[in-house]
Specification:
Elements: H1 2-31, E1 32-34, E2 41-43, H2 46-53, H3 55-87, H4 91-102, H5 109-120, H6 125-132, H7 144-168, H8 173-180, H9 185-213, H10 217-223, H11 230-241, H12 244-268
Antiparallel strand pairs: 1-2
Length: 279
C-alpha cells in the first residue's frame, strides 16, 4: 500500500507546480497592485471594478457566452443524430465510425482551424464550387458563421463520443418493453431513449461549452479580429498590454463562471429512471 502511495507523489508535485501554483499566482495578481517597491504590494478590487464598469468588456463576455451557447446547441443538434446512428450499427461498424470521428482530433487544433481559412477564403474551395454555378464570391471568412463553424468543427467529436457512450451502454430491453406496451418509435425515443441518454448529453455540453467560451485562437484565425471574445481579451492583457493584474482578474471571473457551469451540469447529470407506466 505504501508503494502505491509513493507512486502518487510525482503526480501530486506535478499538479502543484502546473495547476495549483499558477492559480494561486492568478488570484494574487487579480487582487493586488504594485506599490513603490516589489515588497509593498497593495490589496485592490480595481481590476474587477474596471471589468464590470467598462461596458466594452462586459459586452465581450456576453458575446463569448452567446457564441459558446450557439456552438453547444449546434453540436447537440448535429452530434446527437450521428451518435444515435452509430449506436444502432453493428459492433464492428461502430468501431470504424468512432475511429473516423476521432481521426481529426489526432491533428493539432491550430492546424485544423487554419486549414478552414483556405476553405472559406474568397478564392477557397467553397467559393470555387459556388462560382461554377454562377454564385459568388461570397464572404465566408471573418464572419460569425465562420467562427461558429470553426468552433463546431473542433468540438463536435467530444459531443458525439459522450452521447454515443451513453447510447451504447443503454439497456435495450427498455425499448422492447416500450414496443410491447404499444409505444411507436417517436414515443419510444422521447420517453425512453432520450431520458437515458441525458447523462451523455450533459457530459458533451460540459466538454463543448467550457473550451468554447474561453477559446482565443479560433476567433483570431476565423474571425479576423471582427469577433473578439473573452479569451482574446485575456491573451491581449498578458502578451500585449502587459497588464497581468487585469488579465488575471478576467481569468478569475471566467474560472468562476466555468465552476458555476460545471456545478449546474453536475446537478443535471442524474441518470433518469424509466418506468413502464410512463410510456
Amino acid at each position: 500500500m505504501k508503494n502505491f502511495k509513493s507512486m502518487a507523489y510525482p503526480y501530486i508535485l506535478w499538479s502543484i507546480a502546473l495547476i495549483a501554483l499558477p492559480m494561486v499566482l492568478i488570484v494574487v495578481y487579480a487582487f493586488t497592485k504594485e506599490g513603490n517597491s516589489v515588497i509593498n504590494i497593495q490589496f485592490t478590487l480595481d481590476n474587477f471594478a474596471r471589468f464590470f464598469s467598462d461596458r466594452v468588456f462586459f459586452n465581450v463576455l456576453k458575446r463569448s457566452l452567446y457564441i459558446a451557447v450557439m456552438t453547444t446547441v449546434v453540436c447537440i443538434l448535429l452530434g446527437y443524430p450521428f451518435a444515435y446512428i452509430i449506436a444502432r450499427m453493428k459492433p464492428r461498424s461502430q468501431v470504424v465510425m468512432v475511429f473516423i470521428v476521432t481521426i481529426p482530433t489526432w491533428i493539432n487544433m491550430l492546424v485544423r482551424t487554419y486549414a478552414w481559412r483556405g476553405i472559406l477564403d474568397k478564392s477557397g474551395i467553397i467559393n470555387s464550387i459556388l462560382g461554377l454555378v454562377g454564385i459568388g464570391p461570397v464572404k465566408l471568412l471573418e464572419t460569425g458563421f465562420a467562427l461558429i463553424l470553426g468552433m463546431v468543427y473542433n468540438f463536435i467529436p467530444f459531443m458525439i463520443l459522450q452521447i454515443y457512450n451513453s447510447l451504447s451502454k443503454m439497456d435495450y430491453s427498455y425499448i422492447e418493453a416500450a414496443s410491447d406496451l404499444g409505444a411507436d418509435r417517436l414515443q419510444t425515443f422521447l420517453r425512453v431513449v432520450l431520458p437515458l441518454s441525458i447523462p451523455g448529453v450533459i457530459s458533451g455540453i460540459t466538454l463543448v461549452f467550457l473550451p468554447a467560451v474561453s477559446s482565443f485562437f479560433i476567433p483570431k484565425l476565423l474571425g479576423g479580429g471582427q469577433y473578439v471574445l473573452i479569451g482574446n481579451v485575456i491573451e491581449n492583457q498578458f502578451l500585449t498590454s502587459g497588464d497581468w493584474g487585469f488579465g488575471s482578474a478576467i481569468s478569475l471571473i471566467m474560472a468562476i463562471i466555468i465552476i458555476i457551469s460545471m456545478h449546474i451540469t453536475k446537478k443535471l447529470d442524474k441518470a433518469p429512471s424509466v418506468e413502464g407506466g410512463d410510456i
